[in-house]
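Students often ask what a 'structure token' actually looks like in practice. Rather than answer in the abstract, let us consider Protein RER1, a protein of 187 residues. Its sequence is given first.
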Amino acid sequence: MELEEGYKSQMETLSPVTVRYHKALTFYRYYLDKSVPLIKERWAALGFLLFLFELRVVLSHKWYLSCYAHGIFLLNQFLGFLTPKFDMSLQQDEENKELEAGERADEFKPFIRRLPEFKFWHISVKATLIALISTIFNFTDIPVFWPILLVYFITIFFLTMKRQIQHMIKYKYIPLDIGKKKYTSSK
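Now compare that with the structural description of the same chain:
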């Protein structure tokens, strides 16, 4: 009860704008927390936002540089999603030292992402909303020759993914959990 009264007295001393900001932030966090278990719905919403942004760019024939920057940002976030949190080369060196010493411990080491799935989704949604809002203003439309940007983006994408896949093969990890593993009973 004291905590509630202290919170109310603190909110009374703040300006009305600050109080509304805190209420809006609480509202936002509440629904963000409720969206955590809704994985398919969250990604479908992001897909819809991406579709709206791309549709806006294609139909207006503008904002190609914004689209390119948005694509590079999402590629960077995707790499964070695919990359392990801990450096695999250091772990590999430690395992080699254990093998040389003859004390190999076969323990399960789970894959921990550098950028968790929810944060990846949340950052991608915010970036897509910012990119979509930027298409409202003409001063954000910087004229460029878009085919060069497209070729450059495709080149960067394939080179980066090639390097990431080579890293995954070298250190033997799979960052994607596709479906739940099903076990059959031995009866």
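One point worth highlighting: The chain is about 70% helix and 0% strand. Ask yourself how you might have guessed this from the sequence alone, and why that guess would often be unreliable.
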